[in-house]
């Protein structure tokens, strides 16, 4: 789910995680044209769970701010993961490691409680869907 602003992203992620059994695996913040902050939240889980979570996240985020886009990739090819990792390495950071801190800050800004939990276990590839 891609939103404009951290508060909108926090609302999207909060609703998504509450709606279905999914895990947040990344938060990417980009300052774009006209200094607009775009935030992309990536989640994983069963395909149906990710779809339900994205639907709930988009609905909640739309009530708070602007949703730029959302998409579910069911069972992504391994090259998709490689592309994402290459992008992270080029930027010299790992959103997976930074996600909880960024989300805590975003939740504090929005007045939401952060309920994100990260897990070292990655869902199996055939049950995994990546939201990017």
Gist?
Helix content is 47%, strand content 24%. The protein is of the alpha+beta class and 132 residues long.
Description:
Residues 1-85 form the BMC domain. One of its GO terms (cellular component) is bacterial microcompartment. It holds the Pfam family BMC. It is found in: Bacterial microcompartment. Helices cover 47% and strands 24% of the residues. It is of the alpha+beta class. The protein has one domain (2-118, 126-131): Alpha-Beta Plaits. Strands 1, 2, 3, 4, 5 and 6 form a six-stranded antiparallel sheet that branches. Strand 2 and strand 3 (37-45) form a beta hairpin. Helix 1 packs across helix 4 (95-110). The longest helix has 18 residues, at 47-64. It is flat and about 35 Å long. The N and C termini lie close together (6 Å).
Number of strands: 6
CATH superfamily: BMC (bacterial microcompartment) domain
Which radius of gyration do the C-alpha atoms yield? 14 Å
The percent range for strand residues is: 15-25%
GO cellular component, one term: bacterial microcompartment
Family: Belongs to the bacterial microcompartments protein family.
Protein name: Carboxysome shell and ethanolamine utilization microcompartment protein CcmL/EutN
Organism: Acidaminobacter hydrogenoformans DSM 2784
């Amino acid at each position: 789910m891609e939103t404009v602003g951290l508060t909108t992203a926090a609302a999207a992620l909060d609703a998504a995680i509450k709606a279905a059994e999914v895990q947040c695996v990344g938060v990417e913040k980009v300052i774009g044209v006209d200094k607009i902050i775009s935030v992309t939240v990536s989640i994983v889980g069963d395909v149906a769970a990710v779809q339900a979570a994205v639907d709930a996240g988009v609905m909640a985020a739309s009530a708070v701010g602007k949703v730029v886009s959302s998409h579910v990739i069911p069972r992504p090819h391994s090259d998709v993961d490689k592309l994402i990792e290459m992008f992270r390495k080029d930027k010299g950071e790992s959103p997976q490691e930074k996600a909880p801190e960024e989300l805590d800050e975003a939740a504090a800004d929005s007045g939401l409680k952060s309920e994100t939990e990260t897990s070292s276990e990655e869902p199996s590839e055939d049950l995994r869907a990546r939201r990017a």
